[in-house]
Amino acid sequence: AIHAGQEPDPTTGAVSTPISLATTFVQKSPGEHTGYEYSRTGNPTRKAFEDCLASCENAKYGLAFASGSAATATICSMLKSGDHVVSIDDVYGGTNRFFTRVAKPGSALSFTFADLTQPGALENAINPKTKMVWLETPTNPTLKITDIKAISNVTKKHGLTLVVDNTFCSPAIQNPINLGADIVVHSVTKYINGHSDVVMGVVATNDDQIYEKLKFLQNSIGAVPAPFDCYMALRGLKTLDIRMKQHTHNAMLVATFLEEHPKVTKVYYPGLKSHPQHEVARKQMKLWGGMVTFFLKGGLTESRQFLENLKIFALAESLGAVESLAEHPAIMTHAAVPAEQRKKLGISDSLVRLSVGIENIEDLISDLKQALGAVGVGKVSKL
Fold first, then answer.
1. Is 90 designated active site?
2. Are 188 and 57 in contact (CB under 8 A)?
């Protein structure tokens, strides 16, 4: 991540990758250029980020997009009207919204949401029109862990494209292509950039045909990131590995603290032995990550009391940054998911999601302790 795609500038010797703001590039003769012709089609700073990310994911190719949602939409643009997609049921709310309210009515795609952690669930969901399987592991927000290798064995058997959203892990923790995925997608906004100041997405693949299709769509649709954002994300990649180690260290201590607290009924964290798929996580993840989900005793009132009394954890959407964030999925990130589906997935009013940052762990535990102390005491305002 520190060197891949980032050779010193050949003209000046600059160690840091330059930000190329040019929208067009001089050609020696019509159609004869140096590899760049128009910045939507290709940009030197973007290419440096794409190559670096591909290297981190052990992939041949990387393609950057203006957001994770833009990356998702572009991947789905490879499909044709009438095609069917099997998706993990507990998928990011924005992905669920795009699948059900944009791609389904607008492109005549069909979707089946299934708990792919269960043996046989994928086989049962596949039909003759199935072309793609969409996986998140860990999922957002209930942190289900799916065996990527086992799923890839099924997709290869049926000739399906396996897409794995690796946002919650980042390349520092998990490399889905090594486990059989055809496409890896990230919201760069989260751990890869890691500082809450860039909105961006990226796709990685080893497949030449998939790359050519996505490269064509990237250029044709044009949802590409600005060179400055690519520079910022490239800088974020340089510290990704060391940040993920600290995220994991803090999150493990937070999860352990919460699991022992009397006002908490359940904690989901891959590093806890109580996690239903802990052994799967041990097999395919290098670290446990920085995301912790837990259930408070009570309901919406108790969740509001907890969230409104946090001092260091910021009540905000998003995740994966150096600062700690807390949110209420049912009202915030997953509000677009139908209430009936949220209930089925366990996204209740008592569910709280934490993105544990890299602050001093004693300060974080102290903050959680005092906020939990406020639960069941006093009034709440409206979220």
1. no
2. no
Q: Per residue in 260-273, pLDDT tens?
A: 999 999 999 999 99
Candidate list 36, 40, 83, 286, residue with the active-site label: 40
Query: Active site includes 268?
Result: no
Helices and strands per DSSP (H, E), number in the chain: 13, 12
The Cα–Cα gap between 286 and 138 comes to: 13
Residue 186: the pLDDT is 98
Catalytic residue among 46, 47, 144, 190: 190
What residues contact 159, with CB distance under 8 A and at least 6 apart? none
- Residue 24 · residue 38 · CB < 8 Å: yes
- Of 209, 166, 138, the C-alpha closest to 56 is 166
Omega before residue 141 within 30° of 0, cis: yes
Contact 153, 180 (CB under 8 A): yes
Quote the DSSP letter at residue 17: P
Q: Cis omega (within 30 of 0) on the bond before 138?
A: yes
Task: List pLDDT tens digits, range 206-234.
Answer: 999 999 999 999 999 999 999 999 999 99
Q: Which of 51, 147, 165, 367 is catalytic?
A: 165
Summarised one tens digit per residue, pLDDT across range 59-85 is: 999 999 999 999 999 999 999 999 999
Question: Of 376, 372, 378, which Cα lies nearest the Cα of 307?
Answer: 372
Name the E strands within the chain: 61-65, 84-88, 110-114, 130-136, 161-165, 183-187, 201-205, 264-268, 291-296, 314-315, 325-327, 351-355
165 is catalytic: yes
Residue in the block written with tokens 């690796």: 166
Question: pTM of this prediction?
Answer: 0.93
**Closest to 285 in 3D by CA, of 295, 293, 275:** 275
What are the backbone angles phi and psi of residue 264, rounded to the nearest 5°? -115, 130
Q: Is 97 a catalytic residue?
A: no
CA 57, CA 237: separation in Å to the nearest integer? 12
